[in-house]
Amino acid sequence: MENKKHYLFEIKPFSDEDGFLAVIEEEKQIPFKIRRIFYEYGVDKNSLRGKHANRKSRFCLIAVSGSCDVIVEDGLSKVTYKLDKPYKVLYLDKMVWKTMTNFSKDCVLLVLSDSLYDKNEYIRDFEEYLKENGQKH
After folding, report:
1. Is the dihedral of CA 82, 87, 92, 98 positive or negative?
2. CB 3.0-4.6 Å disulfide test: which of 16, 57, 83, 89 passes with 115?
3. How far apart are the C-alpha atoms of 122 and 65, rounded to whole Å?
4. Active site members
5. What's the pLDDT tens digit per position in 67-100?
């Protein structure tokens, strides 16, 4: 794990002659208690989703079908993660700016969160994010 605020890890799938099984358990494969699950699908390839940071929520993102890119930036660095296997998981801590793009036509992006939805915890302006994150741009 290079960065504790965002990193990619894999869930070890089980397989037999009939296919694969990936198991997700809170506080085991996923490093938090799961309070909310949602997914995105049917997103146009050129769309930009996310484009925000969360003050209190942590997330794990999995492209259970298809693929997409997740761009993570903090004002100092910018990293692009490719989610293209149903066993690859991207962990995002709170106060991480994220943008999802380059969705394949068949992409289903599953998102697990440790928090219930609260519109007040979203930061949708990058300059505001930099200020709250203690950085100037």
Report:
1. positive
2. 57
3. 27
4. 52
5. 999 999 988 899 999 999 999 999 999 999 999 9
Q: Which residues contact 53 (CB under 8 A, 6 or more apart)?
A: 94, 95, 96, 97, 98, 122, 123, 129, 133
CB 99 within 8 A of CB 40: no
Can you tell me whether residue 120 is helix, strand or coil? Answer: helix
Domains in the chain, start-ordered, CATH in brackets?
A: 6-132 (2.60.120.10)
pTM score: 0.92
Bridge partners (DSSP) of residue 70 are: 81, 100
* Distance, CA of 109 to CA of 67 (rounded, Å): 8
Q: Which residues, 6+ apart, have CB-to-CB distance to 118 below 8 Å?
A: 56, 57
Structure tokens at 135: 């950085």
Give the closest residue to 59 by CA, choosing from 84, 85, 33.
33
Is residue 137 scored above 80 in pLDDT? no
